[in-house]
Structures
1.
Amino acid sequence: MSDGRGEPLFELAGITKQYGALTALSDLSLSVPSGAIGLLGPNGSGKTTMIRTLLGLIRPNSGSGQVLGLNIAHHALDIRRQVGFAPEDECLFPGVTGIEFVAYAGELVGMPATDAMQRAHEVLDYTGLGEVRYRKVESYSAGMKQRLKLAGAIVHDPQLLILDEPTNGMDPAGREDILRLAADLAHNKGMSLIFSSHLLPDVEAVCHYIVVLGNGRLLLQGPISELKQARANCYEVRLKQPSEAFNQRLTAAGCALAVRGELLAVKLPEGAAMAMVWQAAAESQSQIRHLRPQRSTLEEVFLNALEPH
């Protein structure tokens, strides 16, 4: 479960959390490796409750867990000192400047004031907010506010960064800024990441591993590259020039075809081999430039996990 890479990033065992009659997490058990982790699930699946449980902000009704080797029941404050968290909700204080907000975030996790201020300048420069550090936070755009929350979450150089819906409602430019920063932190700065989002392209752009929740339960987890399995008898083909004769030969041989831009998706009949595609190309005098097994998309993996089995 921990992917053979040493101590897991976090582990939960039998976690149940109820709010009155509502069960937000139901006997949730999982172990997740370090790295860039995508947390997926529809609304009400338990993603935010799981994040708050990991941070020790709420106590589960039953079960146990650890984050970075620290017990969530007994070391919640130590966990929060080693974890950075940028919530989806508005958490900025009106009337303060960007530099004041980030420095205060550093002091909240125990940094001396002078160190927090110095580090605040560094992370504001890193997130592209250096020129607006002395402006009041309420004057920031939506994208700038998201980057400011990110700066506050990394001011203390945490081992783990948790981003809850960081690109929700953002324009394309702001979204790209957040994805670029998240990917850089995860892949170049050695920071583990939990990236909670309902936007699958954003998760795939940043993460190598996903956890899928549904109705408070674990539905699926694993490396994205392994979950996107090659489809049996399905191939992607691109020709030097489109050829109706090529398509007709494949159809006559029992293949199902679908045009997707420059690519042709080909599903061979049961028992057929890829040689059928090469034969059709030879008979139609078509030149194949690209031929490879077709793999499931992350969206298909996600939707399949949500289906009752």
Note: Residues 1-5 have pLDDT under 50 and may be disordered.
2.
Amino acid sequence: MEIAVKISGLVKDYNGLHAVDHLDLSVPKGSIYGFLGPNGAGKTTTLKMIVGMTEPTSGEIEIMGKKVTFGSSYGRDIIGYLPDVPGFYDWMTAKEFLIFSGELFSIPKKTLNDRVKELLSLVDLTKHKNKKIGTYSRGMKQRLGIAQALVNNPQIVLLDEPVSALDPIGRKEVMDIIFSLAGKVTVFFSTHILSDVERICDRVVIINEGKKVLEDSMDNIRQVPDIRELEIELENEKDSEYILALQKDPSIESIFVDHAKVIIKTRDLDHARNQLNEVIYTKQILVKKMFVKEISLEDIFMKAVNHHA
């Protein structure tokens, strides 16, 4: 697995306060990597150190296998960046702004014009390309910001809280754009919105108070909770007394009954299902439905952060 961004022992100290505290993480090339944590966890500070806007107190940063130091020009042409509060020249049009941004990278005129046309289409602003940015909605500006981060055709794009201030429609539009980049560019985006990470990321790191508390693929992270829930809806609520007898089993954490609905919390899902099926069969219980509750990223996030705290 090729690594696009590698951070080792990264520290940022502000007068004795560790905003980032010996952080280690690896971002696979071509992945959509979710950088998750509560407000003030150190996400923005970390991104600023990666792009060279803030000098680390200590630690190492590698971009595409090469170590980078503060003040060096390496990474400038292969990284795109959208800050948490992007700035625009409101008197410019979207097309003018993207051309201006591309000229900062000395992109040849014809190549740049083709790139701007492509990006305006990607972020669905072609129809609005000649309108002043000052007339844009917040969602339109954020989409333009993503286009600006991609103007130099980077290998890695860093997005800091790209949807935090948007309404549901704006969030969906931006997340659809980010998802469309999968496999074409490495996307490293920070957020505190759990549902967005769960929807599009294939790898996630959770940080709290500047420290990493969990990092893994989404598939593996969903296996983290040691308590699973099994929900059953019965035809006859009186039959719940037979299921309550399963509380004697050491693998059963608890059983909650609400009329005909029964929720079993267990540390061994397969064993609990086998025990339940045996009770259903021997007692001839009629079941309307039975399903395993899916583990949400919110469950995992709260467990990881609370455990760290």
Note: The mean pLDDT is 89.
3.
Amino acid sequence: MPLIAQSQSMHFAEALALTSGAVLREYDLAFETYGELNADKSNAVLVCHALNASHHVAGSYAGKPKSEGWWDNMIGPGKSVDTNRFFVIGINNPGSCFGSTGPMHVNPDTGQVYGADFPVMTVEDWVNAQALLLERLGITQLAAVMGGSLGGMQALSWTLQYPERVRHAVVVASAPNLTAENIAFNEVARRAIVTDPDFHGGNFYQHGVVPKRGLRIARMIGHITYLSDDVMNAKFGRALREVVDGVAREDYHYSTQEVEFQIESYLRYQGDKFSDYFDANTYLLITRALDYFDPARAHGGKLAQALAVARARFLLVSFSTDWRFAPARSRELVHALLENRRDVSYAEIDAPHGHDAFLLDDARYTSVVRSCFDGIAKELT
């Protein structure tokens, strides 16, 4: 029987204190749940989303074909994270643009759309917001928290901010912080957005425009970093854009403006699609939260000291061709956890797909996750 998803929303009248010293005075969080919460509420699994994902983790919306959740291959009835056994929660983080309060919503203090005035969020702020929603659901301890990429950072942060409320953490294709190169990619993408004439200092809503040019370039830059060189060469190589206006291509245009290669066409398509649904201020906020995440910073850069408070059992997964969040970054986490004598399992999957591998089907990957959750299921009362 197909898993039918239904988006929900929860309002919080209490202010959310933020790491920056600012507050989010009043806000809504969009979320979805799958499966049934058991009697003692011990089977809850929180799934944290990455940059351009949302709370729609699994299943499909009734009457909406091709509306599968972003991790539907991993989560659902009989899947690696089996919703016949677990109560899975997906929460859209504040500042995002998929239902939770974000820059496109009205600031209750001014009566105007937040725009550039929406407060800067951190991974820790998101985790605090998630914890408040779980409290409202009556969930005092998670069987597991799980996420990939930025979602993995949130899963890690859960084990540090709320160590007694997490029994297991599954951290996939993630890192303890961003490298200088990763911060640089984020900055180039942000500059593409803020220098778009339609950005208007982040207050483009008032002008009835969207900085689509900047968003397109930001997405193109990001997409390049999510794929491996092997995948791009195998999929596109140096192939020319084959058909233009119904005419087959056999030679170059000899133009600096026209699309020549298939990879160019693909990137432009991805950029166009992204600019139609993603909010520019949200992109700035989320990439900055990525930049700021660094739990070792408060401990003189010593990761083992930062992770000493964690009590969860960990599964970490990385992918051989992921150069954005390379396996070496996951191994840093493994070593730091082992220094603290924590229970850690680690799988490094030899996969050609780059960073995007954490979203794709790979029998070895899904088997590792399934085995982990089979073990967690045996602990349930």
Note: The domain at 182-285 is CATH 1.10.1740.110 (Rna Polymerase Sigma Factor; Chain: A).
4.
Amino acid sequence: MKLALRLAKKGEGKVSPNPMVGAVLTKKEEVIATGYHRYFGGPHAEVEAIEKAKGEAQGTTLYVSLEPCNYYGKTPPCTEKIIQAGIKKVIAATSDPTSKGGLTHMAREGIETELGVCQEEAKKLNEAFFNYLRKKRPFVIVKAAISLDGKIATPGGESKWITGEKSRRFAHSLRDKVDAILVGINTVIKDDPSLLPPSSRRRFVRIILDSKLRIPLEARLLNDQEKAGTFIFTTWQANKKRLEELKEKGIKVVVTEAKQEKVSLKEVLKKLGELEIMSLLVEGGGEVIASFFEEKRVDKVFLFLASRIIGGKEAPTWVEGKGVNLLKETPYISIDSLKKIGGDYLLQGYVK
């Protein structure tokens, strides 16, 4: 099953809105064939493994990281392929609420089934998928590169670069693992980022929160629409002339309700959920990140910690906003891992 999970992870960033799945066929503890879901709309992991077995699947045991599907979608049901191949036993790491009773159906057809091997690892692998099933909104990941005292720039505004090159490369690679990236208009005006992913993607969306439509028409985020589309979420306060200019350029602009003169995050996440955006990387700035925390919309954090102190009351921090009055109101981060990357550290944690 560990091998099936490693195979499944190869589909990260390529199969959404489907889950990542890996499969291993064995006979007498020997691996006969393997497979994984490579891209959205492509063959499922179980089917790939069976086809690679070339007729030797009869009497084998199938280890699969997620319960096989039992319905017609982009592809036929995996359960029927498994039954036809003569597989003797199916071991699934975790159940899939969307499978339409895959394990139950196969058990009725005489196949021995087992559920729960490496279950926690399997659920964590597809945490964005399971989050979407529960909440119908993206799994929100906040990413920030900070000094040890929590600053993202000096009092004078210098921010390039707080962390080292290895950290920056790893941080950039995170875009290949998510469906969308989000920043606020202040970040766009200050840094003029392109926010493109490192590699060519089937789909990747760049999102800007801009309550008054202050975005410059020459902003890099408005270019390369064939590589990654841009969504701008704004409010009734939007500059009407700029709204028309953006529409002429083919940029998608969504007008939401204003919450304290800011774009409604609830509406943003609802819209992204409707678009089947499973995972969202929030890159800042500090006010935007604060808004996500204040509205309890953050699921996970990636903090790149540089071994430096910046100091200064005017230096911006990675979480700005109004803050909390009582310690009991603070979001709690359950630290999942801390690892060294070059001269920096990467802290990963979940918001409880």
Note: The CA atoms of residues 67 and 301 lie 29 Å apart.
